[in-house]
Amino acid sequence: MSKIEQLIQQLCPDGVEWRPVSEIFITKNGYTPSTSNATFWADGTIPWFRMEDIRENGRILGNSLQKITSEAIKGGRLFPANSIVVATSATIGEHALITVPHLSNQRFTSLSLSDDFIAILDMKFVFYYCFVLCEWCKNNTTTSSFASVDMDGFKKFQFPIPPLEIQQEIVAILDKFTALEAELEAELEARKKQYEFYRNALLTFGTGKPHYSTKIEKLIQQLCPDGVELKTLGDVGNFVRGNGLQKKELTDVGIGAIHYGQIYTHYGVIASETKSFVSPEFANRLRKAKNGDLIIATTSENDDDVCKAVAWLGKEDIAISGDAYIYTHSLEPKYVAYFFQSEAFQIQKIRHITGTKVKRVSGNSMAQFLIPEPPLEIQKEIVGILDKFDALVNDISTGLPAEIAARRRQYEYYREKLLTFKRKEV
């Protein structure tokens, strides 16, 4: 029998009391001070929270990305420290515990404990139970110009109030799960930086410094002692633009197809199967990528994503959409795909981006980019090293993302079990 089960039998064998949000909390709506009034924003020191704060810094927050001045506060009152903000419109179902006096924007509803409940509810327990509340929010929305939570139902949503000792024991257990997940995410971030460092180092030649791989250094001395030649992408391949494929033409069966938008959201360095298909009749009208070709998304809303590329290693030819280029070349396919992620490529790319709202890079521009062309044996050795890093940081079945996902499932399972209580009959 667990300690919590023992405490429940000892302290609340007949169940626990439940109370609605409207009784437990003082609820307030956030707001955005006028952006046209500079005195509300200039040199502000008061935390003002938005969804971006949760995305950037997590669910327990003591500082905000943006701040406001005291002139911006309606009625001169802030939301108190140790309040919960819950997203009740737009991006519904997110929440955070705010540890400092603050305000938030209008997408959030603030929950602070009423005086009668301060002594009997641990705010960290409330924070964890808000995962249950947020699931309710996602399933109870009303729609007008945009989705929002049914606030009448929200105020009636009930929280369990187990004895404080039980709340604190639950918090201690869930804190450990949270800390473990944070450690794994920190390790993943460190590994990503290490991966980027080695990718850039392995794809850089002619610096006069020893190569980061002893084996590659020996291969260079053996196969190209006079150095690695730089070629333009146009020297070693050619670019052909895709044509005529829109999302509405994609199907679940047929001839494999890649839409340029999927390169951002679905594909990694390589692909041997497609997410989507087109009919054989429609495929006959489209340009095709063959095994070994690189497929490049050349349109994006930001500089980072434009020219994201995937090496096609499937057996069948596949159809490619417009706003993507097929690069047919004489290099090791994954070597080229890794090069497109490298700092050396990004520096060249930035100089050739056109457009403001929509960013583009043309095939003619990419044909001018320089790429190191070591012997094929060296290209394959570089790919072998980078494949291991890529699997560690990106593989959802074997790498750190898989371990994080497994820990998260375990955490969510125990959180659901720990936050399930028998209702006390009145």
TrEMBL record:
<keyword id="KW-0175">Coiled coil</keyword>
<keyword id="KW-0540">Nuclease</keyword>
<keyword id="KW-0614">Plasmid</keyword>
<dbReference type="GO" id="GO:0004519">
    <property type="term" value="F:endonuclease activity"/>
</dbReference>
<dbReference type="GO" id="GO:0003677">
    <property type="term" value="F:DNA binding"/>
</dbReference>
<dbReference type="InterPro" id="IPR000055">
    <property type="entry name" value="Restrct_endonuc_typeI_TRD"/>
</dbReference>
<protein>
    <submittedName>
        <fullName>Restriction endonuclease subunit S</fullName>
    </submittedName>
</protein>
<keyword id="KW-0238">DNA-binding</keyword>
<dbReference type="Pfam" id="PF01420">
    <property type="entry name" value="Methylase_S"/>
</dbReference>
<feature type="domain" description="Type I restriction modification DNA specificity">
    <location>
        <begin position="225"/>
        <end position="404"/>
    </location>
</feature>
<dbReference type="GO" id="GO:0009307">
    <property type="term" value="P:DNA restriction-modification system"/>
</dbReference>
<comment type="similarity">
    <text>Belongs to the type-I restriction system S methylase family.</text>
</comment>
<keyword id="KW-0378">Hydrolase</keyword>
<keyword id="KW-0680">Restriction system</keyword>
<feature type="domain" description="Type I restriction modification DNA specificity">
    <location>
        <begin position="13"/>
        <end position="189"/>
    </location>
</feature>
<keyword id="KW-0255">Endonuclease</keyword>
<dbReference type="InterPro" id="IPR044946">
    <property type="entry name" value="Restrct_endonuc_typeI_TRD_sf"/>
</dbReference>
<feature type="coiled-coil region">
    <location>
        <begin position="174"/>
        <end position="201"/>
    </location>
</feature>
<dbReference type="InterPro" id="IPR051212">
    <property type="entry name" value="Type-I_RE_S_subunit"/>
</dbReference>
